[in-house]
Design a protein that fits this description.
Layout (H helix, E strand, L loop, with lengths): L17 E6 L5 H11 L8 H8 L2 H13 L13 E2 L3 E7 L4 H19 L3 E3 L8 E6 L4 H9 L1 H4 L2 H9 L3 E6 L4 E10 H6 L3 H11 L26 H10 L10 H17 L6 H4 L5 H5 L2
Parallel strand pairs: 2-7, 3-4, 3-5, 5-7
Antiparallel strand pairs: 1-6, 6-7
Helix pairs in contact: 3-10, 3-11, 4-9
Length: 295
């Protein structure tokens, strides 16, 4: 997903307030398996246990985390600072189009699942003034208006943002404070277009996970919802572990790529000792949207 920094009011060199955005560009569910066959014809088929062994390796976990947490699609070759929530998340579900009851249920299950994985305090509020994260189910025709209202006309007019609004299915935006902690977030899901593309559930799952602080998409991360070359609609065991790593006490917002890489061996060792790697396949399903949907 595309991700660009946004600097508001204080100029291009200011780090006091930033926003990043990401959009879902993947193909519908039915095409994902076909895409793998077309793009990777030379891969040797491996058993589930063999595949699990690969993503459980420390080197793979480290590289995967660096890809989705420290890189940005529109800043190739460079690394950003680590971002994540520090303050309690207060979610407002704003259903303007579609089945509001189902949308609220999906959102509540998904965000509570993420809170349980990360340990990040989270609650749901009905007042816009009390919310610092809004998930909005809107008409596709309203995407540009909503994005502009959040980031401002200047950021909304950048080539990256225009491309995301034009080509993406759904869109995630967030702002960070001086300490690089996420201060607010917005998820825009065009309910009409997402259903047409069979991406409504995908949007809820992927965008909410990215807004926790894993904003980059990378085909190097697999199996994962953060990869365009994937068959996953739901959080994968690898995604579960990456979220655990993101909210590890050894890490903090604002850490550089070098600082994060240096800290990850201790993080991985600790979560491995806690059984998070060996039991990730089972634990990622507990309380998940996948479990709620009966898949």
């Amino acid at each position: 997903m595309p991700c660009l920094p946004h600097r508001q009011l204080t100029g291009l060199l200011s780090s006091s307030l930033r926003a990043s955005f990401s959009s879902s560009l993947r193909a519908p569910w039915a095409l994902k398996a076909l895409g793998i066959a077309l793009l990777l014809p030379s891969l040797v088929v491996v058993s589930p246990s063999q595949a699990a062994e690969r993503w459980q390796r420390a080197a793979v976990l480290t590289d995967s985390f660096m890809e989705v947490a420290l890189k940005r699609e529109y800043q190739p070759g460079s690394s950003a600072s680590l971002v994540r929530w520090q303050a309690p998340i207060k979610v407002r579900v704003d259903s303007q189009l579609g089945n509001s009851r189902m949308q609220r249920q999906m959102s509540e299950v998904q965000f509570r699942h993420l809170a349980a994985i990360t340990g990040q305090p989270l609650s749901f509020v009905s007042s816009a003034g009390k919310a610092n994260l809004r998930i909005a189910f809107i008409a596709r025709d309203h995407m540009t208006r909503e994005a502009t209202a959040y980031v401002g006309k200047q950021q909304a007019a950048t080539p990256g943002m225009r491309k995301a609004l034009r080509e993406g299915v759904c869109l995630t935006l967030f702002k960070t404070g001086p300490d690089h902690a996420i201060a607010s977030g917005l998820i825009l899901i065009p309910a009409d277009y997402a259903r047409q593309k069979a991406r409504l559930v995908d949007c809820v799952v992927e965008e909410s996970a990215q807004l926790m602080g894993l904003p980059n998409d990378s085909d190097k991360v697999f199996p994962s919802i953060f990869s365009d070359v994937t068959v996953d609609t739901w959080l994968s065991p690898l995604d579960y572990v990456l979220l655990k790593m993101l909210y590890a006490p050894e890490l903090s917002p604002g850490m550089s790529a070098a600082q994060v890489r240096a800290a990850l061996p201790a993080v991985i060792q600790r979560i491995a000792e806690q059984g998070e790697l060996s039991h990730a396949i089972r634990r990622v399903r507990q309380g998940s949207l996948r479990e709620w949907a009966g898949d």
